[in-house]
Structure to design on (1496 residues):
């Protein structure tokens, strides 16, 4: 992907800084005649929006999205539909407090991108991380809300499955619980524990990491492409591009290293509708970079928020040793709000591959094939 | 990345199937006047070449590379140098035995890409996996050999750090041992164990997974780019695109999920040469998608080879239940030969980002910066 | 180029429709630390702005641009500079009169994109041409204003050299006259004639075409690239992508067809500063797709405005024969306002190639070269 | 387009130099299951092949193409079909005579790319122009032969319509005559004149330019895209990227500058099959960058061959004034062999846009549309 543009057929370009006047994105390549209103997008932005519980940053941003182009009223239905041309989604920033950062404007926060941006560009937008802020992810969620509407029957859901060292109990995994707690946790028992745990982390002026799992159902078999446009390669890039993500795995992921061939490879049978059925899903729905038709399953790790209230050794941009203590307003576990962001990125990757596949192959060939001579 | 092309400024496109007449790649965007001979590339191909020990496939391929374009004799030095135009690297296949596959030509091998290619394209090149074969990775190694010559002072090394459930002992990690055993293992004690272990796996007609670690030193601070062209996002895609890879992590990777902010974020001090020094490298050399100047560290998991001698349930392309047992010639641990492939992919990503950075920023600004008014 | 994004290293994506709330662009890949204010951009937009004379559309758009991201105050100089991250340039539409179009909302205007957009997308934004409106070119001018600041010493100027069948007199060509008349005409005598001529065209409810010439000086020798990234190929695409353009030529263009080899090929001599001097510039500053260091010269034809007051035969989107007469507010010679647009596009192409060249080649090799053995 | 790769969905990357061991291309993104044999491609290469008459270079190259990957025998039909993966097309060079160039190895040929390649790369492949040779166009013809098979019902034909100052007589235009003379001239009377004329040009050691016209029929209405991926913008780039091309026009092209709106805009009526019929085709089949369904018509100018037997002033790469006289073997009118090359490039652009359109829009909406409320 190039700079700030994601995708090939379904593409979006994001812009904006944490403390600038606005953030947002331009979505391009979207198929025409898809019903789309600001409310459709707002619904997803509201899940990611900060300041909704004591477990996320207290910055108050309504994240109200405006559709500035690319939709038009369809006279026949009275609905606003996409036109197939660029969709500008604009979100104004309203609760910047740049002076929170004036004490540290020449210092680099350990674990943040301040130093590397300065090493690269010679510019240091110290106000809340500037372009490197996780605030950028609101734009991803907005683009993802469009992407979700492209592939018929697609469902993309994510959940937090580990906070700090504490994993959920898989036997209690319930998608319906995800929206019942402020952690997007599918295990209601562990969610209660997380509340206590994260309170203590926050009060200590510390932060903690997390693991998120994303599951996409209804991904058509055959989308994806060899060998550098693999669906899993693009998913890995998409998830790794989210702020603070340090690891990505598909299906059984790192666990496959310890497996034997006969444990790992998913066997097949012919199912009732004459389609192949896999007897397991170690592959996480992808083989050879192409979707098998099973659920696509990915997991990724989010590192602990680097902005903490504990003093840390660092340097400033004039080459001097110093100390830093980041006040500002921060998430004690930035992994929580990565949940809707991950859903958005996975939806974008799948929408993009769906269109790319349709371009190259069109309707394709109905499986199974007739036997030669039959 | 698009289809079979990797990279933006430093680009390569691979072609060829396991049992076709040849494989190879076209490298494009390479800077001019870089000395390059076939021997420079052959050196790296020889590391990946099959049939060198009983622990890899017994297919005998010399993997002899020919440079068919893009170099020219420099009259002043007598050296062959790159011209800046496309470099075709051609490797002929010589030891195809397609009839090994005739028994299974209509069946899908579990864990392989046979079914998904057929679902996508309606074509089933059963001969050794066709385009989906790991044989394609020879082309990557060839491209990587060119990439290694682009960034001054860059070193990229990889090693196998886990086979099956057996990790190396980190206290014995020695890069010099990597070429002393057939596993690219940096722990000589564990390497001996791996020989016995893999023999038993092989004799059981089974296979096993592995974890590989790649370390790039000499990566200039500042290369990489926000926010969808992140260095780690591109590394994740590059490594995930290697056959059989199911997981990728950067720096402390999945372990960061369990960490506190004060453990994870790398503190900084001013070093002797007035450059910043990091006091640790949990980040694996990348923050905000941009290189910090520390070693770039990545790890990835390779699943166990799916072609095994144990009978497995599967279906054929005509919609019938059946069984399969893959004879052919296969690696009992395909992760071993992923080691030189990983080095190549990481070298390509870094070369590409080096050129992209030079394009946007040029010489850049010398760090540290003068104090305003000073 | 993909959809609504132009360029590879220096990139911009435009959005917005003629009668939507706003138009604009996101510029990405811009080098950092380039001083940039809204006034720098406004200066160029004001040249293209409609309603400035009776010879252009009477729509009153201030085309006031706002920089919404990608610049930051440099503390040392007090200047706003680019940060190297996306620059959102937003221009609000203020003088939409969509009801002008309500009579013709189901009809296709001959010569316009209405039918083909509908054939492609199944959506008909009849309000002033929607996305296909020449209003989009304001975004190009904004992007071009940024591009102009990238290549040191670059100057890009354009002029109208033919209106209808009436060419300028080349012996009177004077760049200083271009801003002295409402036609960007470098021949002051012909400019007076054009005023009378265009008045009569306008009063007849008709329109007329034009030819524009663009000259870029200070283009570094060596930028451009074989063989599909040629500088002239990208210029041709960039100019052809401007609304209503039907032809592009470089240097002597179509006239070269009638030439002999000895007339056309530009001879060379060594100049005073030891650099090569060309004795003519039939090539228009480009050979083999790469800049020679001479002025880059391009010309293009703009067809007559298709919206005219004369009734025309057409069809509607429901498959019925009908007639159309376009009231609205239109340019009698849309070629006039193509002049600043052409400058912008040429500046963007050159900036993009400058960065692409710097990426691949870096500082390059000082010409002439030392003789081997000398 | 990037460097040596053309296209987005239907892509090809060419490689090779005039006097290297081989040239060719890798075609990627081709839809699967398209019947394809070397003979299908050879047919088109044979039209471009040199040495077939006294009017083209006497270099004897069989241009025998080999398909090295990307096709597979379909068991059901016995046909070789594309697999959807990369197709390597390899053409060996057999009649290099590099010593023809040894006299001029340090000199730049006026009108050639020698100087600019050297200024860019610091490398001078003097052997027949190296990568800048028109020999590269054989690779384009090979790729084009694949492209032609993608869009159902597409026909792409080209003809030479002007040699030197001598245009054909349009009233005698007959596509059936094109293959009856060595000039691809559709006017048999003018073809006879060209034989005499070009003989005299050749004997004088000179060369001459030409104009070629390309017509694509069966281009589906709706392919193409706003606003930087316009069909005509991509055609302009594709044709301008052919060696020696200096101008491109679509439809009435430069002539539109002199037209009135009522002359130029093509009126529409409903035809017999309820599809729109245009009453003229001044637009050349493209409006707003999107195909109208009419024939796509383009014309381009090819400059006279720069390698001539007349001595010319030039410089060498060591900064010295000198003279040059190019012996070698050259086309007196390189425009002739541009005819099959142009067909190939136009076929590639249309195939690419066809797939891009199918990706974004799929089946689309049947025109005309139902009336709301009807």
């Amino acid at each position: 992907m190039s700079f700030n543009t994601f995708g090939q057929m379904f593409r979006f370009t994001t812009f904006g800084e944490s403390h600038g006047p606005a953030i947002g994105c331009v979505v391009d390549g979207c198929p025409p005649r898809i019903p789309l209103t600001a409310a459709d997008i707002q619904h997803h932005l509201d899940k990611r929006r900060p300041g909704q519980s004591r477990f996320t940053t207290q910055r108050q941003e309504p994240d109200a999205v405006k559709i500035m182009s690319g939709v038009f009223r369809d006279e026949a239905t009275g609905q606003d539909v996409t036109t197939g041309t660029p969709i500008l989604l604009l979100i104004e920033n309203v609760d910047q407090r740049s002076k929170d950062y004036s004490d540290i404007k020449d210092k680099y926060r350990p674990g943040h991108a301040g130093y590397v941006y300065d090493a690269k560009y010679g510019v240091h937008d110290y106000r809340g991380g500037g372009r490197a802020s996780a605030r950028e992810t609101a734009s991803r969620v907005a683009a993802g809300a469009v992407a979700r509407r492209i592939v018929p029957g697609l469902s993309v859901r994510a959940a937090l499955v580990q906070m700090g060292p504490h994993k959920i109990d898989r036997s209690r995994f319930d998608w319906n619980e995800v929206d019942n707690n402020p952690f997007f946790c599918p295990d209601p028992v562990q969610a209660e524990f997380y509340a206590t745990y994260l309170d203590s982390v926050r009060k200590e002026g510390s932060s903690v990491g997390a693991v998120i799992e994303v599951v996409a159902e209804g991904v058509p078999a055959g989308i994806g492409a060899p060998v550098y446009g693999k669906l899993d390669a693009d998913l890995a890039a998409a998830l790794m591009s989210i702020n603070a993500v340090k690891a990505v795995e598909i299906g059984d992921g790192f666990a496959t290293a310890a497996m034997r061939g006969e444990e790992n490879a998913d066997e097949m049978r012919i199912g009732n509708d004459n389609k192949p059925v896999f007897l397991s899903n170690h592959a996480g729905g992808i083989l050879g970079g192409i979707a098998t038709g099973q659920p696509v399953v990915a997991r990724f790790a989010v590192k602990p928020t680097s902005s903490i209230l504990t003093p840390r050794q660092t340097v400033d941009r004039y080459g001097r040793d110093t100390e830093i203590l980041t006040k500002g307003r921060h998430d004690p576990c930035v992994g929580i709000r990565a949940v809707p962001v991950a859903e958005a990125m996975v939806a974008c990757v799948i929408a993009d591959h769906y269109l790319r596949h349709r371009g190259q192959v069109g309707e394709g060939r109905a499986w199974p094939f007739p036997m030669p001579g039959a």
About this structure: Helices of chain A lie at 38-48, 114-121, 137-147, 188-203, 231-240, 261-264, 338-361. The interface with chain D takes residues 8-9, 29-33, 75-76, 84-85, 226, 355-356, 358-362, 365, 369-370, 372-373 of chain A (CB under 8 Å). The CA atoms of residues 19 and 96 of chain A lie 5 Å apart. Chain A has a mean pLDDT of 94.
